[in-house]
Design brief:
548 residues; alpha/beta; 5-stranded parallel β-sheet; 17 helices; globular; disordered N terminus; binds 3-acetylpyridine adenine dinucleotide
Length: 548
């Protein structure tokens, strides 16, 4: 990289505007990237599609939206002052609270002046002759940068299934990830919710409490555990804050990037039935998914072990839901617990005991069309409904990147390169796409960890890498194809050694018709992954090609 990194905008700046780095996305990843890279003296511009910062937490405003990782963990660690000052009122942060926090971060670290809102990036083109990326936005902005950081999110491309007849629906329809900012009042309405993933499970109890009648359309029964949310105990908070730096360091040495859960020491099959019952009872009472999956060493590795935990939760469902027929529909039987994203809820299964809630199993009787007044499954007309809520998820992990026309001049688009599934080196870079970094990309632990920790780890790595390039006079970095091939193979091997591939989950793209079935996140554990990234950097960016 030349010493003379481009100067930022001046009154007479030429078009396109030139930066050292353009960051795509103003969520938790983009904000930290801006903060971290600006501190290196680089000129940075962030483009964000929304009218505010916050990414996921800006868009997902559905009733009951909250984080399923505890708030004391799910927050930035880069500033001790910030983590000491911020007070989380509840064990799990609500969407409004987390969005308030993100806005506070944007103000506190003076980030807004380098963020352009309402600006969806549509293309990114690398010119190998001049070694620069040119990005264009929907609104016609054109910017040029030596480096491009894609912080466009893993769950940021909402997906409404391609149902026939949606345009004919006379009521209102909503998607969990595109929720109206003014909120929705379902009072007195007949509402349909399609989808029972984390979003559906969180919103269903609240919509049921407000609506006249709620009909839930479930394709796959999902395991959900009680969150046991509540006000954050002030003594607990004080202790946590006292040990914050140590706890953050400890989190780096865990598989999920979350501290405070002692590592299990034995297989579920080594315990007696009584011991297992007591262990699962304790986890159920404690609330939280990491703690439950951490009851034994092999719940995500051994089907027989997993069966003990899966059956425990099925029995809980049967104990909570009064109608045996409804309980059986709700009790998941087609995948091991934890292999689809485990949900956390407050009164989810209890909601099916309400008189104003019905459950429709659309596994064997799929939705075939939306009608003007409701919807039709293969066998039955359902409705009338005043509103339909799609809690149908996202084109996960690759959707946002594939929507941007990313390419090197004269070369194939990233979307085409990934036709058969995403390929990255460490989830950080893609061979053939120089100077483009991905924050928590496919092939990294990302969604299988505490996301903010994963974001910080990736961004720190990228920042250190840029500093290294500058210090050593390199202007270009690119993942080498053999290193990428080996990493992709490793990611697959690790996934195949677990139970994860047994589920039709968004981790394998199963929720998107036609999406190649490839296990996208790295499930070898955060700690080992970070060591690998550090070792790669320590060995002069092994597996990357650096050119002056
Ligand atoms: O989406 P999902 P989500 N007909 O894909 C169903 C994070 N998150 O928005 O399982 C009928 O999990 C689909 O059925 P199936 C978290 O990582 C976190 O709920 O594909 N049904 C499924 O039931 C989460 O995992 C929080 O068979 C259809 C549902 O819609 C991720 O975001 C809160 C259908 C989609 O579930 C995504 O969660 C919310 C069709 N044609 C989200 N198509 C926290 O707590 C899809 N479905 C932090």
């Amino acid at each position: 990289m030349s010493d003379a990194m481009e100067e930022t905008r001046t009154a007479t700046a030429p078009q396109p505007m030139n930066y050292d780095v353009v960051v795509v996305g103003g969520g938790l990843g983009g904000l930290y990237a801006l903060h971290r890279l600006r501190a290196l003296g680089l000129t940075v511009r962030v483009f964000e599609a929304g009218s505010g910062v916050g990414g996921t937490w800006f868009w997902n405003r559905y009733p009951g939206a909250r984080c399923d990782v505890e708030s004391m963990e799910y927050s930035y660690s880069f500033s001790d002052d910030l983590q000491q000052d911020w007070v989380w009122p509840e064990r799990y942060g609500t969407q409004p609270e987390i969005l308030r926090y993100i806005n506070h971060v944007a103000d506190r670290f003076d980030l807004r002046r380098d963020i352009q809102l309402n600006s969806r990036v549509t293309s990114a083109l690398f010119d190998p002759d001049v070694g620069r990326w040119t990005l264009k936005t929907e609104g016609g902005d054109v910017v040029s940068a030596r480096f491009c950081v894609m912080a466009s999110g893993n769950l940021s491309t909402p997906r409404v299934p391609d149902f026939k007849g949606l345009a004919s629906f006379r009521g209102q329809w909503y998607h969990s990830g595109l929720w109206p900012h003014q909120g929705v009042d379902f009072s007195g309405q007949r509402v349909a919710v399609i989808g029972t993933g984390s979003s559906g499970v969180q919103m269903i109890p609240l919509i049921a409490a407000q609506a006249d009648h709620l009909t839930v359309f479930q394709r796959t029964a999902n395991f959900s555990l009680p969150a046991r949310n509540g006000p954050l105990d002030s003594e607990k908070e004080r202790c946590h804050k006292e040990q914050y730096p140590a706890r953050r360091r400890a989190a780096l040495d865990t598989p999920f990037g979350i501290a405070g859960h002692p590592a299990p020491t034995q297989s579920a099959l080594q315990a007696t039935e009584d011991e297992r019952q007591r262990a699962y009872d304790a986890k159920w009472a404690e609330g939280g998914s990491i703690s439950f999956l951490y009851a034994y060493t092999d719940l995500l590795l051994d089907k027989a072990s997993n069966d003990t935990a899966s059956e425990y939760v099925r029995q809980k469902i049967r104990g909570i839901v009064r109608s045996p027929a409804v309980a059986e529909i709700l009790a998941p039987k087609d995948h091991p617990i934890g292999t689809k994203r485990l949900c956390l809820d407050t009164n989810y299964y209890e909601t099916y005991n309400r008189n104003n809630v019905s459950l429709v199993d659309v596994k064997n009787d799929p939705i075939v069309e939306i009608t003007p007044s409701g919807l039709r499954t293969a066998s039955t007309e359902h409705g009338p409904f005043d509103a339909i809520v799609f809690a149908t998820g996202f084109d996960a992990m690759t959707g946002a990147l594939r929507e941007i026309d990313v390419r090197v001049q004269g070369g194939a688009a990233l979307a085409d390169e990934w036709q058969a599934g995403p390929r990255t080196y460490l989830g950080l870079m893609v061979a053939g796409f120089p100077n483009m970094f991905v924050v928590t990309g496919p092939g990294s632990p990302s969604v299988k960890t505490q996301m903010i920790l994963a974001i910080e780890q990736h961004t720190d790595w990228i920042a250190d890498c840029l500093a290294h390039l500058r210090a050593h006079g390199f202007s270009r970095i690119e993942a080498a194809a053999p290193a990428q091939d080996a990493w992709v193979q490793h990611v697959n091997q690790v996934a195949d050694s677990t139970l994860y591939p047994l589920a039709n989950s968004w981790y394998v793209g199963a929720n998107i018709p036609g999406k190649p079935r490839v296990f996208m996140p790295y499930v070898g554990g955060f700690a080992g992954y970070k060591q690998k990234c550090d070792a790669v950097a320590g060995n002069g960016y092994e597996g990357f090609m650096l050119t002056p």
